[in-house]
Structures are given as C-alpha cells and as structure tokens.
Amino acid sequence: MEAWGAALYGDPCRGCGFDWSLAPFSAIETIEGLPQRLSSVIQGATGEERGDGWSVAEYVSHVADNLRQWAERVNAARLDGQTRVAGYDPDELAAARGYRTIPLHAAQWSLTLSVSAWACTLRAGLNKAIVLQHATRGIQRAEDIARNNAHDGIHHVWDIGCILGGQP
Ligand SMILES: [Zn+2]
C-alpha cells in the first residue's frame, strides 16, 4: 500500500504545517482561498524562480492540474459510477503539458478555473459520500480527497514561498 496523507507527510505536515484533522468542507474553503494565498506569496516573482525541482510557475501548473484531475475522478464516480482510479505521474503530465512553456499568469488563470470546478465537484462528492478505490492507496473517501488535495495546494504554495526566500 502506498503511503499518503498524514502517514506520508506527518500530522501536522513536517513542511507546511497542514493539520489533517481539517473538516472536509473547511478543506474546500481552504482551496477556494488558494489563488489569493498564492497571489500574496508570489508578489514580485516572475515565475521562473526555482529550487531543486519545479519553478514557481511549474508548481502553479501542477496544483491546477492536480485539482482538475481529482475533480474529474470524483465526477467519474458521481456521474458515471466509475470508482476505480490509479495514480498518475505528475512529471509525465508536466512534460506532456509543457509546464516549462506556461508562464505564471496563465498558470494562475488555470488554477482559478480548476479551483472553481474542484470546489463545486467536491461539495457534490461530499454530499453524495463518494468513495473511490485507488489502486495503490486503497479506499479514498470524498473527505480524504478534499483534505489530500487541500494539502497538495497548501504544501506547494509553501514550497513556492521557500523558493522565493519567504518565511516557510
Ligand atoms: Zn505539507
């Protein structure tokens, strides 16, 4: 079984301090606040700044695509009854989508669209108590997905803050 969530990152997360006891609807509100949170962290940045891994803009593209990916999966269960999902390789997606060619403000635009679609979908998924069967993580309830995706967003904004030399 693949470790994920609190088992992988610690509770609270050893990096960004994310509290895994966050209520699922609060996790959705956290993500709805992410574009604003990101904007305040990247003030004055070009998006090309990078540490050991992705650049600032590439991180933003990843968060946007991760939310999009998971919203689609929840909708596959909610609208089509398809609950089996598997992992995807974020680096392969980055290569296929050409994250290096997506500048910061375009990536922020994508993030805002993804946040809106994700929040609407996850609220519906929580209300319907959607449960996915993940090939390597096991059972993923809508509330697990809400928290896990909220952590991904918060953690990568924290990563971006670290790259830009702000307070983690
Ligand atoms: Zn974290």
Descriptive overview:
The chain has 168 residues and is mainly α. It has a single domain, classed as Four Helix Bundle (Hemerythrin (Met), subunit A). The protein has 7 helices and 3 strands. It has helices at residues 6-9, 24-32, 34-41, 56-80, 90-97, 104-127, 142-163; strands spanning 84-85, 131-134, 138-141. Helix 2 (24-32) runs antiparallel to helix 6, helix 4 (56-80) packs parallel to helix 6 and helix 4 packs antiparallel against helix 7 (142-163). The longest helix is centred in the middle third of the chain and has 25 residues, at 56-80. The radius of gyration is 15 Å and the shape is globular. The two termini are 30 Å apart. The relative contact order is 0.23. The model has no long low-confidence stretch (mean pLDDT 96). The structure holds zinc ion (ZN). Zinc ion binds next to helix 7. Residues 9, 13, 15-16, 18, 151, 155 line the site of zinc ion (ZN).
Condensed summary:
The two termini are 30 Å apart. The model has no long low-confidence stretch (mean pLDDT 96). The protein has helices at 6-9, 24-32, 34-41, 56-80, 90-97, 104-127, 142-163; strands spanning 84-85, 131-134, 138-141.
